[in-house]
Amino acid sequence: MLKHSKNSLFDEINTHILEDKTPSEYFNEISKTSLFREYPFELLYKLKQTEQSPKHHPEGSVWNHTMLVIDEAAKVRERSNDIKAFMWAALLHDIGKPGSTRIRKGRITSYDHDKLGSSLVREFLKEFTSDTVFIDKVSALVRWHMQILFVVKNLPFGDIESMKKEADIEEVALLGLCDRLGRTGTNREEEENNIKVFIKKCKEY
Question: Distance between CA atoms of 73 and 70, rounded to whole angstroms?
């Protein structure tokens, strides 16, 4: 494997998430390099060491989940109105989990990882680009990706009004679908129906 600089690795990652059919194959290889343990790529490397609730994520670590999500995202990226922002959001959507994961009453939780993740996305991307429109889009998608669950289940964390001001509902829904499908043992029909319910509720709000 060629020796990378930080910027060349960012550009290479960008190419793979935009073009590969299964981007996870590339990431599982590049994550073995020493540069992936350096800032800011270490924010992704930490996903490997962050466990999740076996009940909700039988696939294991946040890294395993993220790899499934980006492969799902690659299947539907042509449906996005901003493929670059969508794919980067898929890659970075759970970047807040290492800093928010706790054991509470014997359960693994990651409360507010969406909010922390939104902030970390800005830190990560500002290392490589000054395109604020792009950064804002990715950050917003990460910030609101949990709303599918909150809105569909009528949880108090749902905030359709704020979400609609900051993000494209259709893009949030597309990312949310990939997030839900990016775990082992999911029911695709059930998850696709949840997305339809989410979009309907958001449009009716």
Answer: 5
Which tokens is 54 given? 């076996």
Show Cβ contacts of residue 99 under 8 Å, excluding neighbours closer than 6 positions.
Answer: 113, 116, 120
Residue 124 phi, psi (nearest 5):
-60, -55
Read off the pTM: 0.96
Mean pLDDT along residues 8-33? 97
pLDDT in tens, 146-199: 999 999 999 999 999 999 999 999 999 999 999 999 999 999 999 999 999 999
Q: What angle, rounded to 10 degrees, do the helices at 62-76 and 169-181 form? A: 130
Domains and CATH numbers, the chain: 6-204 (1.10.3210)
β-partners of residue 103 are: 108
What are 61-66's contacts with CB under 8 Å, separation 24+?
62/94, 62/97, 62/98, 63/31, 65/94, 65/182, 65/183, 66/90, 66/91, 66/93, 66/94, 66/182
